[in-house]
Every structure is written in structure tokens, then in C-alpha cells.
Amino acid sequence: MLTKQHEIVLQAFAPFPSADPNLEQYPTPPGVAVRFLNIAAGDVRGKRVVDLGCGTGILTVGAALLGASISIGVDVDAEVLKVARRNLRLASEVFGNLNVAFVRGRIPDFHFRADTVVMNPPFGMRRKGSDALFLTTAMAGARVVWTLLGRRSDPFVARLAEGMGFRWERVADIPFPLTRSMPFHRRDRVKIEVSVYRLERRL
Question: Domains in the chain, please, with CATH?
Fold first, then answer.
């Protein structure tokens, strides 16, 4: 399991250099990342894991620290991937070599095969349908999908999952602190609640 030591290192990760509202580049707080990955641990440890929309790499690197056989982060933003690679080097200095790769790609065009996807995708607030696009891409490429989504998105998840032959479960609702990162944010910090979902392909 990921520990407080892991969380401290993740807290030292560099943030988005310039968060893009249209890409909904909201950072995953280290505490949320650790809790989320520990919940998903049984589907991560020893597995081939992909993180769609990896941003600065916190879930990608976290999955490797948790014991993924390989962890691959995918993002469309080349500058953000440079930050992710720097963050990987930081984690590797503390914990040793990690089997992590970062790949630039648009999610609709990214075809892959993995055991598990872990992701904090766009919630579709700025680009309607982006959440569905991430989720369907994840289900097309992996047997199991773990995702953070807006609070209690059950009808949305049910429609997509059942349409692609997946069973689904809302595993937890967890607090998600957001700090000011976009020009339109008016408060320094707010706390929202997000839901953790597990989707698995039916045999």
C-alpha cells in the first residue's frame, strides 16, 4: 500500500506549468491520489496500468510505486509531459528505478491493451462529452477501469458501462480539495466531493 512517505514525495511533484481550462487540467491532490490508488490496489499491483490524461504524472507514478508491472501515462500536452518526466525522476531518486513511460497522444486516437486503467479524467464541465470519451476509450483498452468522476455519477456510468458490456460499482465518495489554478477561480481553496468507480468487463 502507499504510505505517508509516498504521499510526501508526491506532494513535492511540480504542478501544471500553465493549467488549460479547456483541457480541465485540475491537479489530483496527493492525498486523493494515495487514497484512490490504495482502494484500487488489487487491480494495480503486478498489472499493466494505463493512466489516460495523466497530467503531471501523479497517478502514473503512484501506480508504479504501488507495484504495477508497468505504468504508462498518456496526455496530449507536450509541456505537461515534460513536467511528468521530471516528477518521475524525483520519485526515482527516492524509491529507485520505476517502470514508467509517458506517451503523448490524443485520447480518441490512443489504442492500447492493458489490465487496468486508473484516471482522473475531465468531468465534462468545459468540454461536454469529454468525460464519456475518456471512459469509453478506457473500457475499449482495459479489462478493469478505476476512475474518479463527479459526485454520484451513477446514471452516466451505468449507461456507458452497460452499453460496452461492463459491470460497474461506485466504491467510495471522497473529498477532493481544489486550489486556485484557473483565471476564473475566485477562491483560493474549495472542497468538492468526487466518486470512485470500478468498472470491469463482463466475461
Answer: 28-201 (3.40.50.150)
